[in-house]
Write a structure and sequence with these properties.
This protein is mostly helical. Helix content is about 75%, strand content about 5%. Helix 8 runs antiparallel to helix 9. It comes from Muntiacus muntjak.
Length: about 325
């Protein structure tokens, strides 16, 4: 293989989950369904939180931000995959690959940081309830989200710039459904040592440090819950963390599975299949986990859907009456 300069690379080949043409319609339908569920499920959470004044609290502010990030996270990879299947073309341009990788790393890092911020929020609410409104003031919540965006942007920008310095060989096949950074480094003809070091260092900053923060927060939470004398009080305190703990477990277990599958099965579709849990299934399940296990979200969601249904029915029955008209059923 002859090495070539990275600026002259026209395109990469995304081989996807399977090269069998008979499976492509099934994969297309499955991923289109999961993508739509992810978008509409997380959008429902955002609209519900924004429309209900009772949910204008730090916990639900962070939840709505997490839902927005999950929509963006899946939108960086799935639409391109669906387009390739529909057009029966497996290519992505060099520039498009770098851009996709940048936004993928950006929103993956944001997911990580927001889950850590939400764990800190639960820690303050349970361990310091009397000072909760002071510690988690609106400007502090905005600052925490802003810092998460800045750190994730810097991380993804650094990784993207490091990829730009690499030269690639004639073998440009990526055994994945998106431009995953470890695959790009494996395809490079130039020395990837510095890139690998940056990836490992970034993984510690983006993965290990936030996880340590989450573990520390929950260790304090568990100690505080154990100090509550009544079983009802313990259950109530733990129930406020159950949804977040489920999402954290799903997120980190699937991410660990992706890492282990890639190191053990290089140049196979196994790592791509496992990464579906991390990139698609987890963002899709988050709205269900929070809505099914959270009474406030369920009540607000019912009110929101009921309000929208009532408005649509009134528009069908009274299409020519203004909402401000005295005869209008919707004040």
């Amino acid at each position: 293989m002859e090495p070539g300069n990275s600026t002259k690379i026209p395109e990469f080949l995304l081989l996807g989950l399977s090269e069998g043409p008979e499976l492509q319609p099934l994969i297309f339908g499955l991923f289109l369904s999961m993508y739509l569920i992810t978008v509409f499920g997380n959008l429902a959470i955002i609209l519900t939180v924004s429309s209900d004044p009772h949910l204008h609290t730090p916990m639900y502010f962070f939840l709505s931000n997490l839902s927005f990030v999950d929509i963006c996270f899946t939108s960086t990879t799935i639409p391109k995959m669906l387009w390739n299947i529909q057009t029966q073309r497996e290519v992505i341009t060099y520039e498009g690959c770098i851009i996709q990788m940048y936004f993928y790393l950006l929103f993956a890092g944001l997911d990580d940081f927001l889950l850590t911020v939400m764990a800190y929020d639960r820690y303050v609410a349970i361990c310091h309830p009397l000072h909760y409104t002071i510690i988690m003031s609106p400007w502090v919540c905005v600052l925490l989200v802003l810092v998460s965006w800045v750190l994730s942007s810097m991380y993804s920008l650094l990784q993207s710039l490091m990829i730009l310095r690499l030269s690639f060989c004639s073998d440009l096949e990526i055994h994945h459904f998106f431009c995953e950074i470890t695959w790009l480094i494996q395809l490079a003809c130039s020395d990837p040592f510095l890139n690998n070091m940056v990836v490992y260092f970034g993984s510690v900053i983006i993965g290990v440090v936030p996880l340590a923060g989450i573990v520390y927060s929950y260790s304090k939470i568990v100690a505080s819950i154990c100090g509550i004398s009544s079983a009802q009080g313990q259950y109530k305190a733990f129930s406020t963390c159950a949804s977040h703990l489920s999402v954290v477990s799903l997120f980190y277990c699937s991410a660990l599975g992706v890492y282990l599958s890639f190191t053990a099965t290089y140049r196979s579709h196994t790592s791509a299949i496992v990464s579906v849990m991390y990139t698609v299934v987890t963002p899709m399940l988050n709205p269900f986990i929070y809505s099914l296990r959270n009474k406030d979200i369920k009540r607000a969601l019912k009110r929101f859907l009921g309000m929208e249904t009532s408005r649509k029915i009134s528009m069908l029955l009274f299409p020519y009456i203004s909402p401000s008209h005295p005869l209008s059923p919707c004040p």
